[in-house]
Amino acid sequence: MRNHIQLADAYYRLSDEERKYGESASITNQRTIVREYCEKHGIILVEEFVDDGFSGGNFERPGFQTMLEHLKTGKANMVITKDLSRLGRDMTESSHYAERYFPEHGIRYLAPGSNFDSEEDNLMAPFQFAMNDVYLRDTSRKVKQTLNTKRNNGKYVACPPYGYRKAERTTDQLVPDENTAPVVKMIFDLAASGQSCRSIAIRLNESCVMPPLKYRVECRDNFTERGARRASDEWNYTTVKRILRNRVYLGHTLLGKSRKVSVKSKKKILVPEDEWVFTKDTHQALVSQEQFDLAAHFMGENTKANGANPAFRHSIFGGIAYCACCGAAMCSGGSVYNGEREKYWYLVCNNLTSRAQHRCAHGARIRYDDLMEVVRRDLNKLLSFDDDGIRAITESAIEQANASLGGADPATQIENIDKQTLRLKKMIERSYRDNIAGMLSDDIHGEMVKKFGVEIEELAARRKKLVEGETTAKEIRSAYGLFFDLAKKYTCVEKLDRDMLHAFIDRIEIGEKILPEGKKIAGPRTPYRQSIRIFYRFIGEVSGDNLREMQANRDREEAAHAAGM
């Protein structure tokens, strides 16, 4: 029986593909039809929910899901859409909501354009659901065929990238956007002069340049509400990097890099590179090949520019050096010390140079040459070990790992635990026999079994850790073996380069400077202490004590050998 007061939630949906049909399919048109229907039939419209730019093949739409949550509050007892296709085009899901979910939850569903009422017999509904599903699949097939044909002919069928817009006469041709093309050119100019992606982003934000997605929302037509919610107010590292890597600015078209899993899924998967559609010289370029390559070179080197010196220095520590205080990457720069006009290069925490609200409280900073020398010396110590030294440092690492397990050899400890466990089990068996024979009361027997059981559980947990320790020892030996197999290719490092650094080292963590008491600023001659932790490939961080001990043993051996000669 229908409620006397009819309280309705209205739902409107429009996919990107349907937008081309104009006003007849628009959200505005749907809203007008539903409101007129409610007014004519005395229905109170409680709330309206919209999914603009969402396909009918997927029901995980924000507007639709929000409506379902609103219905659970009991504030509405009816759902209205313009027609069944607005609810969705997936036959199974549409039928589920219209004929099962809504009725089971006491919700009446109306689709006036399809003559559908969930409280009436709907003999034609299955055919309507099926036709909507067929429409979805057929539309998808036709769209794919059309897009593939246009791609293969060098037409640009995607949304125009930042710096371009679609030509007025044809939507398949890119032309420079007079508002944003100069920004793209400036980004490449800055990158080619050595500016980092992050510093370029900061500069654009300080100049109040509207970022790409925000520009599309505010300055272009036909942009969906979903896209508007995703629009950021600021430039960032990723946005700049994406522009610098995009070959569209060379005048080429590269499309088809991803595709949807299926018609009814929003999930996309990457397409193999040999299946991408690449067409050269399809539109006007914004940058030259030389400028693009130069920007790519500097970006690949992970270098930063010193504003006072365009001929900046390459940093080989990109992707390796990080601030120990906040975890941010260390970026390079240059400085002029006013006292002696001495030029020196340094690495500094990236969050120390960013905007105030993101600044690192104790940002690390170190002279570039100082870090080069520290890493070179540390690496040379490892490279200098012979087979005996390698075995010694490997066993030392294993001993440190074993120290957390009690110090003794894990195999010996496991053997002792097995003996203790066997003894406790025999004591439990004896307790049972004594209890049955009447030599031990039930209470004492119960306490003993409980006590011994707890001890056995503790021993089992201890044994598990020791077994893991044995595995750790094997892993340590394997890791050190891999590292020193690589090390045998080198004898002594006179000068570090990027390839060698990345071959041996995974990560370097640089702490803040600790100055002498009374000193607040470190000059070029000021002594200071600073933590530098080096994590090598395969073996991780090698204890400084281990290195010093191995080096001392080596020095003693060399001294003894020299004395005997």
TrEMBL record:
Pfam families: DUF4368, Recombinase, Resolvase, Zn_ribbon_recom. It comes from Vescimonas fastidiosa. SUPFAM superfamilies: Resolvase-like (SSF53041). GO terms for molecular function: DNA binding; DNA strand exchange activity. InterPro entries: DNA_bind_recomb_sf, DNA_bind_recombinase_dom, DUF4368, Resolv_N, Resolvase-like_N_sf, SSR_resolvase, Zn_ribbon_recom_dom. This is Resolvase. Residues 161-305 form the Recombinase domain. PROSITE patterns: RECOMBINASE_DNA_BIND.
